[in-house]
Amino acid sequence: MGLLVLGQTGLGMVFGFLLGMAVSLTGINLGIWGMTQQWMSAALVPLSTALPFAIYLGARREYLTEYLRFEKVGFLNGLLCVLAGLGICLLGNFPSAFIQEIFGRFGYEPAESFSPYATLAEILVDFFVTAIVVPVMEEFAFRGVLFSHLRRYGAGFAIAASSIVFSLVHLDFSNVVFAFIAGIVFAFLYEKTGNLWVSICIHALNNGLAVFQNYSSSLLGSLGDLVGLWSFWGSIVVGLIALVLLLTLRRQLLFQKKARPGLAEVQPLRAGEAASCIARSVVLWLIVGLMVAYTVSLFLL
Questions:
Q1: Considering the domain boundaries, does residue 276 fall inside one?
Q2: Confidence (pLDDT) at 79
Q3: Which residue has the higher pLDDT, 119 or 240?
Q4: Which residues form the domain of 168?
């Protein structure tokens, strides 16, 4: 499973290089045809993110229902989980922003993937890729396959390990911190609800809000920054209210242990065994090395 994640990261780099070469050879000017790069991203996401895991399931002839679970959770329960999960994920922006500020004093420049002066067509494509394609593919890979595969060793181990891997493949350390918090939320709620749509919806709303904030000035002019700020804080407040309601009115959903259909469980790992297993993973340290190398490059470029 670790090799799959490493292969996924490498596959994204290979596909990016090949598509970049193709664009160069055909003479397409990305500065003139801005949507070309966005469509390239739309093609890369399912290829690099989901393809290795889909091949894994096909090669092992696994039953999809053992990995991709869509149990009934109820509209109110699902809504509260999505809103609370979104609020917690958005709070994860603060440690990420703090790290960016500290790193910025030493020459760090985060990689920007958008232009504040994009056309409406480019914004719509970016929204489609970032808020729809990416959440579906990443939740399939990291919660649907990776988390479900690790769950046989205990839910706690699966939540921690899958979140660590999910965060590291984001490469930029400031994004890694945010992605780890988000990964914990996604995996925890997938475990508790047994419904992958819950984590997909949280992921999609988080990414969609980020796209809106990026282009708020282009869409709304002088009001853009204010509306973006209010949407951010409003989502946090609504999320915290939803969390309080979950903790008071729906405690059994979050804290009651429930048998879940899926892969046959083995003896769950104790905390020390789980930590040792993660620390001894060679592939994990290779991914850490890629993350460090990429983050260092942001100080130099």
A1: yes
A2: 96
A3: 240
A4: 69-300
